[in-house]
Predict the structure.
Amino acid sequence: MWPEVLRIELFGAERVLSSFGLFVAAGFLVGVWMATKLASRYGEVPERDRLAVPDIAWWCLIGVMAGGRLAYIIVNLPYFIDNPIKVFAIWEGGMVMYGGFILAATLGAWKAHKMGLKVSAALDWGLTGSFLGQAVGRIGCLMVGDDYGRPTGVAWALKVPDPLPQGSLFPEEFVGQLLHPTQPYMQLKALSLFLLGVWLLRHRRFHGQVACVMVGGYAILRFIVEYFRGDALARGGVFQEGFGPAEVHSGLIGVHDVQLILSSSQMVSMAMLPLAVILYIRLSRHRLDQTSTNVPGRS
């Protein structure tokens, strides 16, 4: 773990550069770079699409940050009502990827449409590039201890440092314990979807095919990974009756007693998967010219 890269005195106050922020920024740059490469090869109008990537990317960044943070605030509303100043403390971690994913895709699609791009085609190469960026950004989650897993005895378990380094988001009760390395799980999920997207771009039969498959794949993989997470209170969802955040905050039970039956992310997955299937069926009616689908620079 490496929660804080450095601390410096700036403008009379101590400033912290967190590894979470560093890797999120690195992931954004890598995602933009890859999306530019893919747009140059698979864009509907390659040169136009390539030049449009930076403008679209800034709107996606706004969506990732605002959507991810807003979703986290919603599922942890009681905490933020009591601590409103923490709403803007993004550098401490605390983002729900589904919220960021949905708003980023929405704003990116809007900007692509405004710039004259075919939205379904742009989503194919845009989402592919974004999953590579997400794989890089997930390193930051591991460095700060965000999105941690539940206790386990598997051979590849992650041991929580003892003592915890300054800036760590691992809870004190997990110090020295072995946990599922859910951050690397989600990193592998994103990297797998990126590789799947690259392969599908070479073989796609209609615009939007790649995006639909990746969204459906994300929904399935995210649903599975959620079962290995240990941060039940941070995620929110459907809890076993009598064992939920309200009881924990009131001091009636401990954090290990919380029984999360279905997380908020799993519920979103259950909605996203059929939506991806429906869009896949609808978009598949408009097939591409097969003589041009695999030619570099053509989509």
The longest helix spans residues 46-75.
